[in-house]
Write a structure and sequence with these properties.
Layout (H helix, E strand, L loop, with lengths): L14 H17 L13 E4 L2 E4 L4 E4 L1 H12 L9 E3 H17 L8 H16 L7 E3 L2 H16 L3 E2 L12 E6 L3 E6 L2 E7 L2 H4 L3 H15 L9 E3 L3 H9 L5 H7 L1
Parallel strand pairs: 7-10
Antiparallel strand pairs: 1-2, 2-3, 3-6, 4-5, 7-8, 8-9
């Protein structure tokens, strides 16, 4: 059988260490009778999986050739503030393109809400065959506004910077918080320092608020453990961005993290 492995990336803190790792990789490939295609030069700037990286300045952005291609397609659509009609397929193309852009540039996916809402509204009719991909639809005003905002973001394609991480005295100083509709818990090091249960009616299905409550409970317990600071680890993207900005459009969440 044949296995094709593409786009391997090697990183390290120094050129010497990286060269050693590359030599080790080549040796292991030879032992496994694996054929190697080509290597790029060792560099602090590279284009990889559709993104441009500047490792020296710890920043990245979407590859400009990709944004230019998307903007060329969008310019052919003539989207305006007043109204916009296009084949159903265009909605999904824009949704998929913007989704990839936001995900790769670590921006909140909530920016896609209007696009997703209209796609959800149309999806049942696509499934039952009452409309087709080629049928022309009218974009909702909120969807048009969302597209124009995202187009501006793609046009700017600003560099994204790696957030500063405070130095850690110990690996145990990680605060893991998580929540669901049935309860929440916080782990610090190898200990569960807080946990609770709640019911569906009380929670009002506001997952972001529940995640924020769990995080806040853990943070407020840290001083009792003799810990002055810790790095928060969460799988909730909205909470991550709210903590970075120290604010939230959700008033309940904003009141907790303020």
């Amino acid at each position: 059988s044949l296995t094709w492995i593409d786009d391997n990336f090697f990183g390290d803190l120094s050129r010497a260490r990286l060269e050693l790792r590359r030599d080790n990789f080549i040796e292991r490939c030879a032992q496994a009778n694996a054929q190697i295609g080509s290597f790029s030069d060792i560099s602090e700037q590279l284009v990889y999986v559709g993104m441009e990286f500047n490792l020296a300045e710890k920043k990245w952005r979407i590859k400009t050739s990709w944004t230019e291609k998307l903007l060329s397609f969008i310019s052919s659509l003539s989207i305006s503030n007043d109204s916009f009609c296009a084949p159903t397929q265009v909605l999904w193309i824009l949704l998929g393109s913007f989704l990839w852009f936001l995900r790769c540039s670590c921006r909140p996916l909530a920016l896609l809400d209007p696009l997703i809402s209209q796609a959800i509204d149309i999806a049942p009719r696509l499934i039952d065959g009452s409309i087709s991909w080629s049928d022309v639809i009218s974009f909702w005003p909120s969807t048009i506004s969302c597209c124009l905002s995202l187009i501006s973001m793609v046009e700017e394609n600003s560099w994204r910077f790696v957030p500063h991480s405070p130095p850690l005295v110990s690996p145990s100083l990680f605060l893991f918080s998580d929540a669901s509709l049935t309860g929440g818990a916080v782990v610090c090091g190898d200990k569960v320092i807080w946990s609770t249960t709640w019911d569906f009616e009380t929670a009002h299905t506001d997952i972001l608020y529940l995640e924020t409550l769990a995080w806040a409970a853990g943070v407020r317990l840290l001083p009792t453990l003799g810990i002055l600071s810790a790095v928060t680890v969460t799988d909730n993207e909205a909470l991550y961005f709210s903590l970075l900005k120290t604010r939230s459009k959700n008033p309940k969440v904003g009141s907790v993290i303020a």
